[in-house]
Amino acid sequence: MRATVEQLSQILVFVDLAPSELEHLQPYTQVQHYSKGEIVMQEGNRLPAKLYALLSGSLQVVKTATTGKETILRNLWAGEIFAAPALLGNGIAPAMVTAECDSQILSVERDALLEAIRQTPEIALRMLMVFNSRLQQLHDTVHGLVSERAVVRLARLIQYFASHYGTELGASGRGLKAKLSYYQMARSIGITYEECVRLIKSLKSVVAYSRGGKITILDAEALEAIASGTLELNA
Predict the structure, then answer these.
(1) CA 96 from chain center: how many Å?
(2) 83, 110, 144 — which closes off a domain?
(3) How many CA atoms does the CB half-sphere of 172 hold within 13 Å?
(4) Could you tell me which residue, 3 or 122, shows the higher pLDDT?
(5) Comparing C-alpha atoms, which of 42, 46, 82 is closest to residue 64?
(6) Lowest mean pLDDT among 52-61, 135-144, 190-199
(7) Any domain includes 232
(8) Residue 150: enclosing H or E segment and its boundaries?
(9) Terminus of the chain with fewer CB atoms < 10 Å: N or C?
(10) How many CB atoms lie within 10 A of CB 54?
(11) What tens digit of pLDDT does each residue of 176-221 get?
């Protein structure tokens, strides 16, 4: 199924394009549906030369080490692009991508995208900004695994989700719009599930965890102090 102009306009790198420009892309697009838990891309798969973007739902990107240990690299929400090697690299999927809920994936053929970039160079700049941000996030993650305590990495992960995906004001504090399960947090910062549960309990005056992965920030200043390493906790 081809994407509509409205669907194309929901992708962040296309958000300011005129309807006529989006219409030129339409014949080269495809929208695919994935059910919750379905694998969108398997690590090591060869990918067609396309731009991939999440139209609706949410995706989880997981890297598996040779030891079998899984690390969650990131979660993706509607409007975000992914699978950069399909466009800019060797065409091999660098990680496994799984649908966390019923999701729609929009793809645009590479040649059509390059023509759109020739007409509107701003598209390329936005793509570079996205990839640069992810490289910086990866750098920070690797640095943190080497040099930062687990509680610092956990605080920074919660801050990242709060700033990138938003919060909602509640009776006790600001709740993250995105859900963060114990498993997801543990795999994102390189610790065990049990250690993650222990750390969250140690932060009970700073953040609250409730069933379903709902995180509420109770004390933003204390969370910032932990993330910056200026507040020490027995964790």
Answers:
(1) 13
(2) 144
(3) 14
(4) 3
(5) 42
(6) 135-144
(7) no
(8) helix 150-165
(9) N
(10) 25
(11) 998 899 998 998 888 899 999 999 999 999 999 998 899 999 999 9
Domain that includes residue 181, residue range: 149-227
Whether residue 211 is found in the same domain as residue 123: no
> Are both 98 and 15 inside the same structural domain?
yes
Does residue 135 sit in the same domain as residue 167?
no
Q: What is the CATH number of the domain that holds 217?
A: 1.10.10.10
**What's this model's pTM, rounded to 2 decimal places?**
0.68
- Could you tell me which residues come within 8 angstroms of residue 134 by beta carbon, excluding any fewer than 6 positions away? 74
Out of 144, 168, 203, a domain closes at 144
Share of the chain above pLDDT 70, in %: 94
What region, left, alpha or beta, does residue 83 occupy, with left being phi > 0 and alpha being psi -120 to 50 degrees?
left
* Residues facing residue 50 across a β-bridge: 109
Q: Which residue has the tokens 């549960």?
A: 197
52 in helix, strand or coil?
Answer: strand
Q: Residue 138 pLDDT > 60, yes or no?
A: yes
Residues 163 and 134 in one domain: no
Give 187's contacts (C-beta < 8 A, 6+ positions apart).
Answer: 62, 70, 71, 72
The C-alpha atoms of residue 14 and residue 12 are separated, in whole angstroms, by: 5
